[in-house]
Design brief:
The chain is an alpha/beta fold and 334 residues long. The protein has one domain: D-Maltodextrin-Binding Protein, domain 2. Helix content is 48%, strand content 17%. The protein is built from 14 helices and 12 strands. The strands form 2 sheets. Strands 1, 2, 3, 4, 5 and 11 form a 6-stranded mixed sheet that branches. The protein has a 6-stranded mixed sheet with strand order 8-7-9-6-10-12, sandwiched between helices. α2 runs antiparallel to α11. It binds (2S)-2-hydroxy-2-methyl-3-oxobutanoic acid (X2X). The site of (2S)-2-hydroxy-2-methyl-3-oxobutanoic acid has 8 residues, from loops. (2S)-2-hydroxy-2-methyl-3-oxobutanoic acid binds next to loops.
């Protein structure tokens, strides 16, 4: 039996001990990794959120931000997240699809017409469906997805005006079955390369083209190694804020409440930042020497349809997932 005095002494000593811990180091120091440069709104907003979270948890939770693949490429960090070596990670659902196949569904070509449709879907039924699939692999996806954006094609060789311009194009795509499948359907030669190697792959002409949102193109300085930008908006993609489940559940409820509130708020603020920056981004990139062209999207979509792309992916995802996608986007896709 424990003597009453020992229990008392123990409980009296606790606040002093807690104060000492707080003054010195956080109780939990968690790593947050991502693939965007420090200047991208994702990192600006998450750096601010990390400071807020530290303050509001009395220093108990410290989130260290590691931008721009500092801890490894996306596919590396996904393994680190699963093992618990990294606690937090923002990742495209399309890349996560190597682990959670339906997580790529928002990237189906030309599914989304505009941002209001994206946020309604991703904050609504479609997003909830995807997060439930992610939960099955012991990762937690926070409620609000961060924006990456509508993707546009850049090349060092020629503008893309019609689907035939994509034939045999050596285009870098992220490491993801959906991306490879989509550009194969266009007759291109897609090369899977992590974002960490994208700039150098374009610089050394391992690839002649890539596709990314204008804001990401700018912050990653792809205008230095790409000449043409064709406004295809062929898909929308975002970054799920993911946590290792064990690490997340190790945190007490009040710490989790602060962290999820501030991180979801950061996502919503980042969306507004990216949209705002997007308004002038074409001009900014033109000043840097890029040449832009608009495209008629209909022939691109027709090409995907006639190549059997939609039918193939509807089969892979299954009827339930596909009907959620069609309902959420208001598009008849197949
Ligand atoms: O790898 C890419 O192209 C990027 C940065 O857009 C993603 O994270 C999907």
């Amino acid at each position: 039996m424990i003597a009453r005095r020992t229990v008392l002494a123990g409980s009296l000593a606790a606040p002093a001990l807690l104060r000492a811990t707080r003054a010195n180091a956080a109780q939990w120091t968690y790593k947050f990794a991502n693939n965007q440069p420090p200047t991208h709104p994702l990192n600006l907003r998450m750096t601010a959120a990390a400071e807020q979270i530290k303050r509001e948890t009395d220093g108990r939770l410290e989130i260290q931000v590691f931008p721009f693949n500092q801890l490894g490429s996306d596919t590396d960090v996904l393994s680190q997240l699963r093992s618990g070596a990294v606690e937090f990670f923002t990742l495209s659902g399309l890349i996560l699809a190597t682990l959670v196949p339906t997580a790529s569904i928002n990237g189906i070509g030309f599914a989304f017409a505009d941002y209001p449709t994206v946020w309604k879907a991703m904050d609504g039924e479609l997003g909830a469906f995807i997060r439930a699939q992610i939960a099955k692999v012991n990762l937690l996806a926070f409620d609000r997805i961060f924006d990456n954006g509508f993707r546009q094609i850049t090349t060092s060789t020629k503008p893309i005006k019609s689907p035939s311009d994509l034939v045999d194009l050596k285009i870098r795509v992220p490491v993801s079955p959906l991306w490879t499948s989509m550009f194969k359907a266009f007759g291109s030669s897609p090369i899977s390369i992590n974002a960490s190697e994208m700039y150098s792959a374009l610089q050394t002409r391992i690839a002649d083209a890539q596709e990314n949102p204008l804001v990401a193109i700018y912050f990653t300085k792809l205008q230095e190694v790409q000449k043409y930008c064709s406004l295809t908006s062929h898909m929308w993609d975002g970054f799920w804020f993911l946590s290792n489940r064990r690490a997340w559940e190790a945190l007490p409820d009040d710490v989790r409440a602060v962290a999820s509130k501030r991180i979801n708020e950061a996502a919503v603020a980042e969306r507004a930042d990216v949209e705002q920056l997007g308004v002038t981004m074409q001009q900014t990139l033109e000043k840097a020497g890029m040449v832009f062209n608009e495209v008629d999207k209909a022939p691109f979509r027709d090409k995907l349809r006639s190549a059997g792309f939609y039918a193939e992916w509807k089969g892979k995802y299954g009827d339930e997932a596909w009907s959620i996608l069609e309902r959420a986007t208001g598009s008849k896709l197949s």
